[in-house]
Amino acid sequence: MKMIHAIIRREKLAAVKDALDAVKCPGMMVWEIVGHGKQKGITEQFRGREFKVDLLPKTKIEIIVSDSQVKAIVEAIVRTASTNKIGDGKIFVSPIEDAIRIRTGERGDTVVL
Ligand SMILES: Nc1ncnc2c1ncn2[C@@H]1O[C@H](COP(=O)(O)OP(=O)(O)OP(=O)(O)O)[C@@H](O)[C@H]1O
Ligand SMILES: [Mg+2]
Question: What is the pTM of this model?
Answer without folding.
Answer: 0.91
